[in-house]
Amino acid sequence: MTTSLPERAGRRCHNALNPLHSSHYFSPDLGRELAAVGIDDPNGAYFAARSAAMGPVGAGVVTATFYNFRHELVARHVPAVWETAAPSVVLAARARAVDATLRRLLGEEAVASKEVAEAAELALRATEACVRTARPLYAAHADLPVPDEPHLALWHAATLLREHRGDGHLAVLLDAGLDPVEALVSHTATGKGMAPAWAQRTRGWTRDDWDAAAGRLRERGLLDADGELTEAGTALRAEIEDETDRLDRAPYEHLGATRVERLTELARGLAAIAAAAGAFPQGMIGKR
Question: InterPro entries recorded for this chain (predicted)?
């Protein structure tokens, strides 16, 4: 049964849940657990942790599904990383890291709370309407078992909802004619994405790559001489998010308006606790 949702309710819910998933990528716990199985490079750890659900895939698959990373950066670590630790070993290490991270950021009382259990139940219900078709990262994670502990089940559901939305978002970027660097440049120009220096450093792009992409966006009338989005650029980014919402509507319609509102409320509260505990690096988000 589906219920009509307020405009952008699904996006707001996703934005509240996503920090609960993504915080582990910045956690010292992930670095420690993966270093213990032989993966001590931060880039290698990220590529391994996020792609392990797909099995021992090659660099091409990771580049395709992650979209905005430079292929040469990916290829430095994949598939060699699987010679160090098999995907099953990486998944087990990631599970330990997520458990440690959530306990550290949220605190033991919150982890054991009825609110976390309720959020997990609601988020898992939303995932019942996700579809595997043309969504490789979601589909791979959907094949993993749901953890028994509520805080880990919540993280698992947040992961499924994140990758489901993300897979659809990549199709929208392709339709909009934005290559990986252009997508990053235009997103950072909104002020809501990663800061340019952070994006370049972590995604492997050079300054020349970045400037060339900005030049292409200027030629299309999407970016002005100061690197700000033009009216057309702002409209395109808004259209991209709206179309991403459309492709991702099923989980939230399945959950229903009242439950989506409740899940958003619960997730926002937990994400605020995690952020206050230092879940994310300073200077990661913004135009500068």
Answer: HTH_67 (IPR054058)
Which residue, chain included where needed, has tokens 């001590």? 40
Domains identified in the chain, total number: 1
Residue 285 included in any domain = no
Least confident span in 115-119, 177-181, 187-191: 187-191
pLDDT digits (tens, 9 = 90+) for 40-79: 999 999 999 999 999 999 999 999 999 999 999 999 999 9
Give the whole-angstrom CA distance, residue 205 versus residue 159.
26
Is residue 286 one of the residues assigned to a domain? no
Q: What is the dihedral of CA 275, 279, 282, 288, to 10 degrees?
A: -80
Helix (H, G, I), strand (E, B) or coil at 130: coil
**Distance of CA 81 to CAs 3, 35, 59, 77, Å?**
44, 12, 10, 6
Q: Is residue 228 part of a domain?
A: yes
- Cα 231 from Cα 224, distance rounded (Å): 10
- Please tell me the distance from the alpha carbon of residue 2 to that of residue 51, in angstroms, as a whole number: 32
